[in-house]
Structures are given as C-alpha cells and as structure tokens.
Design goal:
alpha/beta; GMP Synthetase, Chain A, domain 3; Rossmann fold; about 20% strand; globular; about 600 residues
C-alpha cells in the first residue's frame, strides 16, 4: 500500500464501507450487559444522519463542534459526522472542571456542544452565562428536561429528515484536504491549553503512515479506553477505520479489566502509566505468594529474558530453550495473556516515556509492546519501534513520509504532512513551534542512529542542571523508580541544587497488601502511606534502585505524599504529572529536603 491523497476523512470511510460493508466496525457493552455491534455500512448511514442534523441546526463549513464525553461510539459518530460536512470537532476531557471547559468552548468559537450525560450537563449549566456562543447542548444519554437549550440525542437524530442525501453529498464534496478537521487542545501541564489545528490531510496521512508500520492481520480487533479528547486515541480510531479493524469501547476506566476480557483484542494502545500499574501488580502478587510459586515465577522471568535476548540479537532459539519457554508460558505467562483477553499480539505505548525494563518484561511474557512517540502537534504519530527490529529504549524510525532531525542543542524536529497547521488564534505560539520551512520543534532531546532510529533522552524544559554542573534528564530515573513494587508516581527534583530528591506517592494496593501480610494495623490507606513502616519500605526500594545509578543521579532524600490525580489538579487527563503545581503544592516540604547534608 502506498500513501494516497484522500480528499477528506469521510472519503476514507467511504473506501472502507465499499470494501467491507457488513463487517463489524464498533462494539461495546450495553446497559443490558450484552455486546452491541455496528457494521461499517450502519456506521456510514448514521454518520450521514448526524451530519444532516448539524446541517438542520444551521451549522456551516468551518464551524466548531465540542464533544464532552468519555470515549464511546457516539463520540466517534459525532466526530466523523462533523468532519464530513466541513465542521471541526473540538474534544473536551470529561474530567475537566467547568472553568476549564468554558475556556476551551469560548476559545474554540464552538456553536454546539455534545455532552455525555447529565453529569456533564450540570457543568455546562453552571457556566451557561459564560458560554454565550453555544446555541444548543445535545445529550448522548440522560434527561434533557424542558429547557430548549438542551436536546436529547434521539430528537437530534430526527432533525435532518428534510435534508436530502444530495445536499449532504454536496457538503461532503466541498471539504478539501487543507480544511480544518479538528482542533485538539493540549492537556495543559503548563499554562493555558493550546489548540492544535489539524486538517483532513493531517488525519488521513497519519492514519496511512501508521498503518504501514504495524503488523495488521485480517480479523484483528482493537480495544479503546484512552480518552478521545486526546489525539492519540483518535489516531488509533482513524487508523482502525482505514484498515477496517473493529474498535471495542471500554465502558469506563474502572471497568477496563473486565471489558478487555470481553473484547479479546489483538492489539491496543495505552499510555505508560497503565503498563506500569499492570507490571507492579503482577510483581506484587508474585511476591505475596512467596515460596515455590515465587521461585517458579522468577524462573519463568529468567527464561523469558533469555528468549528476549536471543530475539533481540536475531538468533534462533535452541530446542531446549523453546521447550523451557513453553513450560514458562503454561505456568506463568498464560495468566497474563488471559487477563488481556488471550489474543493480544502487540500493544502500543505512547504519549510519554516508558522504562525499557517494563517493555522487556512484557516481551519476555510474549506480548510485544511497541514504543512510539507523537504529540498533539503532529497528530500523535511520528515514530514507532518495528515488529522485526526490537530496540528497548528507542522509539524506532519515523513513519513513511515523515522526516526527522536533531538541532544543534539536540532538540528533535519533525517535518511532514502529519504536522499541524497552527495553534488556533495563537500566532506567536505557532511561530515559536513551527519553523518557516515546516519543521516542528518538539522540545524533546534525543539522538538518531545510522538506521534512522530515534532515542528520546529527555525534555529541554525538564532538564535538571545541578549546582555541580551535571546535566540530568529526570525521565529515565523516574522510569526506573516507577518499576518499584510499592511506588506509584515519581517526580525528580534537583535543578540548581547539590543533589537529587524525589516526591513520590505509594501504590495503595500493593502497600495495603504488604501491610496486611506483615500484620501492620491500619484504618485507612491514607494513614498507612504516611506511617513510618511504609516510609522505610519505600526508602529501601529507592536505595536498591540507587545502586544502578551514577552517584550524581541517585536519590538522596524523598518525601511521600498522597496520590497525584486529575481531581486534585496534579495530573492531566492524559495522566501526565503537572510538575509545576506539584512543586507549588509541596514547596515547604521540598525546601526542607535541601536543608542540611544529603
């Protein structure tokens, strides 16, 4: 397959419908616990119906439509329908606070808001006076009441009955590759969110470039639990659409473990945080069993590591190792596969760095985790490791049609049809991010080898320079500490200081299990994680990891704090730490760590 020039995203859908009209397109678990399936032809017809509804409401080409919802079928349906008739979709995280929602709604100049349910509607009603540009709120689910400003989705779907298919097709034909398809707002780790303007060509090109890098097979299905307000999740959906792969939607983040067993995907995408938690839970369970079970587990890990080593070196497995690995799979690794539905061949880790040891762990268990890199500004895809070239700690070469290079200071730059048009209504920010000859300044530091493979070494803005003049990228150290069984989240500090320190949050599940096994009384997890026993436990883990670090990289002191969450404002909806806010929240404790000797 070569990359072709689609006119717009809807044309990409038309191609899939023509090839596979009766094949399943989307699945999810309904309220009756039964799995609902929609075919590509049915999806196409519903996209047309939703587009006609938007036309009936008077939306014109280039108008903006907000979607505030957790990932679901109606999110994708609305997205494709808005893009089909020339509008731009602007997603808003369902976890956003009303004030955050108001900023994006107003800044994006939206006219219509699609809201998931009455919970999201209540937020909109709270800021109704602050969002005068919104003409109508359409509820996916829930009771719209008697307010004319609010409309149920079923009523909305009947709006376009008087719009002819000819009129709809005429609108579709007006949409060109350079037209705006989406404005995706960054999750805002620092400052106000910026709206990356993505065109139809950005989306259709990226879907094709990603498609050409992965091991797709006929009959594959994928599983989606990432938020569709994040372009990473949407790029996965668009790529699945291109190749006719069905997407199974999780009901919520809290039901992922149950839902993935029903979905039984062949591949899925996730952020590193999920892999880290799975890894920590597996290790903690093994430690809790102890005895012969732990010995078998460690033997299986060693066998998987040996298999991985030979595969990395592209050497054949001897018969004795093949037999050992089959036994290890039966005794240990099979349970991990079963927890993921028992059909997963590969996964994608993106949106943030992941510790290579975690990827090695899954690879040894027979699950290939492909590490990639992308950002909102390049439609969330530039590089990914390839199935036939295992390189732990690298993010692979760029996708077809994408250029990369590093600047004099080591900053990674990309150029290609995946790069955004601009930041919406922010010309100065745009000029500071896109060069005149089209290169995207990523803010990441890295190196490129002779085979065009990329390794990311850190973020320019996060680089720590100690008072002794040592330049330290905190991300690799944070990744090492994230593999600790009893540590949940980590933030490394030390810029302009004599030594490194860390702010960490304990893992509530593994710490609670450890306390019970050691007969340490506690009433609440909050009290437990501040106990002297848990502090000693975590300090011991950090000291163990320090042995693998250079002296100037080792963590000299640590403070233990409650979990960073979206609700307490210390984590973004894409599960990234808001480091500036964490420093501000715990400034007194951080200052105390640097008083006296290490």
């Amino acid at each position: 397959m070569d990359i072709v020039d689609f006119t717009n995203v809807f044309q990409m859908l038309e191609q899939t419908v023509e090839n596979s009209p009766r094949d399943p397109a989307f699945r999810w678990i309904g309220q009756d616990e039964e799995v609902t399936t929609v075919t590509w032809k049915a999806f196409y017809d519903q996209v047309e119906t939703v587009s006609k509804g938007l036309m009936a409401l008077g939306l014109d080409k280039n108008d903006k439509v907000n979607v505030i919802s957790y990932s679901c079928y109606k999110w994708v349906l609305t997205d494709l329908a808005a893009m089909a008739m020339g509008c731009a979709t602007v997603g808003i995280y369902h976890s956003n606070l009303p004030t955050e929602m108001a900023y994006i709604i107003n800044h994006s100049d939206a006219r219509i808001v699609f809201a998931e349910d009455n919970t999201q509607l209540d937020k909109l009603l709270e800021i109704r006076a602050e969002i005068p540009g919104i003409e109508r709120v359409i509820l996916f689910e829930g009771d719209p009441g008697e307010d004319d400003w609010i409309m149920g989705f079923d009523v909305f779907m009947r709006l376009g009955t008087e719009i002819s298919t000819g009129d709809f097709n005429a609108r579709v034909r007006e949409v060109s590759p350079g037209d705006v398809a989406a404005i995706v707002y960054t999750s805002g780790t620092t400052g106000v969110p910026k709206g990356a303007v993505l065109t139809h060509d950005n989306i259709t090109f990226t879907a094709q470039s990603a498609f050409l890098t992965f091991d797709w097979q006929v009959g594959d299905e994928t599983f989606l639990f990432l938020p569709l307000a994040h372009v990473f999740a949407r790029t996965c959906v668009y790529t699945a659409l291109l190749c006719g792969t069905p997407t199974f939607f999780a009901r919520s983040m809290t039901t992922v473990i149950d839902d993935i067993k029903v979905a039984r995907p062949h591949w899925f995408a996730s952020v590193p945080r999920i892999y880290e938690k799975i890894h920590a839970k597996i290790l903690a369970n093994a430690e809790a069993k102890g005895g012969i079970a732990l010995k078998i587990f460690n033997w299986a890990l060693g066998t998987g590591a040996e298999v991985t080593r030979l595969q990395v070196e592209k050497r054949p497995l001897p018969l004795w190792l093949t037999l050992k690995y089959k036994v290890a799979t039966k005794l240990v690794f099979e349970k991990i596969h079963q927890a993921l539905g028992n059909r997963v061949r590969w996964c994608i880790s993106g949106a943030a760095p992941i510790n290579p040891d975690i990827i090695r762990f899954f690879h040894g268990a027979g699950i290939r985790v492909l590490e990639g890199i992308g950002m909102t500004e390049n439609t969330s895809f530039s590089n990914v490791t390839r199935h036939d070239d295992i390189r732990f700690g690298w993010v692979g070469p760029p996708g077809p049609g994408i250029e990369q290079k590093t600047g004099k200071d080591g900053e990674i730059l990309f150029r290609g049809r995946n790069v955004m048009k601009e930041y919406y209504k922010m010309p100065e920010k745009t000029a500071g991010t896109l060069t005149k000859d089209g290169w995207l300044l990523t803010g990441d530091l890295g190196e490129i080898d002779g085979s065009d493979n990329l390794r990311v070494t850190g973020r320019k803005k996060d680089l720590i320079i100690t008072s002794g003049g040592k330049n330290i990228a905190p991300e690799p150290i944070e990744g090492i500490l994230a593999t600790c069984t009893y540590i949940n989240q980590v933030m490394i500090l030390g810029d302009r200081e004599r030594f490194l320190t860390a702010v960490v949050t304990p893992d509530p599940d593994t710490v609670s299990d450890w306390a019970r096994e050691n007969r340490i009384p506690f009433e609440t997890v909050e009290d437990l994680v501040q106990s002297k026993e848990v502090k000693a436990l975590i300090q011991g883990e950090i000291e163990e990891k320090n042995r693998d670090l250079a002296s100037f990289e080792s963590i000299k002191k640590v403070i233990i704090v409650p979990e960073f969450t979206i609700d307490n404002g210390l984590m973004t909806p894409t599960l990234k730490l808001k480091k500036a806010r964490i420093r501000e929240r715990y400034q007194q404790e951080i200052t105390a760590m640097y008083q006296g000797s290490p």
